[in-house]
Design brief:
Blueprint: E1 2-11, E2 16-19, E3 26-31, E4 37-42, E5 54-56, E6 61-65, E7 72-77, E8 82-90
Antiparallel strand pairs: 1-8, 2-7, 3-6, 3-8, 4-5, 4-7
Length: 94
C-alpha cells in the first residue's frame, strides 16, 4: 500500500472522530491500544462509532477499502484509552 497520509485518533470509551488525511480508497487502521477498538467511516464529522461496528483487536491492523468518499473515521475502545492510526492511500497489500 502506498500511504499518502496518516491521522492519529486519541480514543477512549466514548466515540471520537477525526478527519482522514491524504487521498486514496484504502485505509490501514492500526489499533495501538490495549483494548478492542470499534471503528466506522463517514462523510462528515457527525459519524459515531458503537460497539456494533467493525472490531479491531489490540495491537492489530486491518486494511479496509473505505472508498474515496470516506472523509472521517470514528472509533471507541472497549476500555481505557489509546491511539488508533488511520493511514490512507492506494493498494491492497501492506
Amino acid at each position: 500500500m502506498m500511504v499518502s497520509a496518516t491521522a492519529t485518533l486519541a480514543a477512549g470509551t466514548s466515540s471520537a472522530n477525526i478527519a482522514l488525511a491524504g487521498t486514496g480508497e484504502a485505509v490501514l487502521v492500526y489499533n495501538a491500544s490495549a483494548a478492542i477498538a470499534f471503528i466506522r467511516f463517514g462523510m462528515d464529522n457527525s459519524v459515531v462509532a458503537t460497539s456494533a461496528d467493525v472490531p479491531i483487536p489490540p495491537g492489530a491492523r486491518m486494511l479496509i477499502h473505505a472508498g474515496e468518499f470516506a472523509k472521517t473515521a470514528a472509533a471507541l475502545l472497549a476500555s481505557g484509552s489509546g491511539a488508533i492510526y488511520f493511514a490512507r492511500g492506494q493498494g491492497t497489500v501492506y
